[in-house]
Specification:
The protein folds into 3 domains: about 80 residues, Alpha-Beta Plaits (2-Layer Sandwich), CATH 3.30.70; about 230 residues, FAD/NAD(P)-binding domain (3-Layer(bba) Sandwich), CATH 3.50.50.60; about 220 residues, no CATH class. It contains 12 helices and 24 strands. The strands form 6 sheets. Strands 14-15-18-13-22-19-21 form a 7-stranded mixed beta sheet. A 5-stranded parallel beta sheet has the order 7-6-5-11-24, with helices on one face. Strands 2-3-1-4 form a 4-stranded antiparallel beta sheet. A hairpin with a 7-residue loop joins β2 and β3. α3 runs parallel beside α6, α3 packs parallel to α12 and α5 packs across α12. The protein is globular, with a radius of gyration of 25 Å.
Length: about 550
Amino acid sequence: MIRITQLKIKTGHTKEQLVKKAANTLHISPGDIRGMEIRRQSLDARKKPELFYSYTVDVEVKNEERILRGAARRGDGSVERVSRESYRFPGKEPIPGKEPPVIVGTGPAGLFCGYFLALHGYRPILLERGRDVDARKRDVEEFWRTGILNASSNVQFGEGGAGTFSDGKLNTLVKDKDGRNRAVLETFVRFGAGESILYEAKPHIGTDVLARVVKAMRQEIVRLGGRVCFETCVTDILCEDGAVTGVETDKGGRISCGRLVLAIGHSARDTFSMLYGKGLPMEAKAFAVGFRVEHPQEMINRSQYGREDPGALGAASYKVTAKTRSGRGVYSFCMCPGGYVVNASSEPGMLAVNGMSYSARDGVNANSAVIVTVTPKDYGSGHPLAGVEFQRGLEAKAFSLAEGRIPIQRYGDFRQAVKGKGLSGGEGDALEEGSREPSDAGGKAADGGAAVAPQCRGGYAWADLSGILPRECNEAFVEGMEVFGRQIPGFDRQDAVLLGVESRTSSPVRILRDERLQSVALRGLYPCGEGAGYAGGITSAAMDGIRVAERIAEAQI
């Protein structure tokens, strides 16, 4: 197999044109290429509005040795021989009669752990406090419509985890020498995602497609002999002589097991408290907090593509980072092209937001979280769960600002408040949804066009957001926005919409585990995924779930 890297061709090309480009690079005719597979596709926008794709492709050819020798003589470093191997699940066959492993949580970590164990005969039992994805979608839509929260079935809890109501982004920075990343993407394709996620530099499938994939994976786990129990919350972990022996649930039952996977997600605050009470070693960890920021998608397209209409390219995305004078990092997170900001609350009296896109990414606004790093030094306590209480404090303030609706504010007003000049009108007053905007906006943008209109799922109200985050975070946020305005023209426009609070960027807790991925204090307990502090996003969580499944299989004796 021959691999060609950095194969550049204008966007809008046909498959035949790509084959011809590959053939020209190899100095052969297109007919000599027996097969070609795209391994990576990224956009090169350095000469916008003229845009190119840069490809890595694997080709099967006649006379491979001769072609490789020719490339070597030419000094063409973009052509090389590759030997591809598919991911192989290590470990041993399950022991007949041994209790099946129990997995707590059906987010990406739990679901992929369960799927790979089921695939290899382990018949896992998955416990999920929330409801199945179809019922969960109904609960979430009802919450967005009425504001009545179901604390067990919401944007954070239920089949698929928090990622189900997001953009369905599948890119990760985790190194992947063992092929788990590819295995995750191939699994998504097997259960209904488009094949383009296998090679896109920034793959995504959208919340609508992700929900269908999650359901199909669960059905396959059951077909393979596993069990999935919804509306079943683990209330206690049973142990003896330093090893797991089972769990108790809110259904009043006990499930015996010697292998327990904790894939609980970053919002399982009651479970964190239960684990702390049992003396399980854990520590507070750094994460980041901030606000969702909405801009017109056409503005982002113009900046990234050099044109407002993206055509077949789809809505443009961005990633921005800055380091402030105080040393705090500020960066965009979970960017949702053509998306919506959603009420992502999971506890009564508290409010958090998230971003969500459907697969078409056809909303009029782009949004991302612009967030500021916080560390245990900011939490006001050395307690392992201090980060959880820090989050709760922010979310309680956000809830009170607009009586449970999403509090929103123009960036210009927020900047004035942070810099001490006060609001230009209605300081601290939450306005009813659909009523007047702050007086400085007047429904107009700084350039004379229409002001950015909020695109939300859930009710919202205008308010002063400057009292939610600590002063140092507000100042870093404004400094970051000004830096980003120099990177993307209009990013710090006065009529950009801020929505708060973005507080669930990652887990504030790490449950300590050893090189076997087991708890340092309790044999047979496997902290896993984002909630345990070992992942950050759908793909990395799924990869960690696979790693834990491998360790469980390798431990068979």
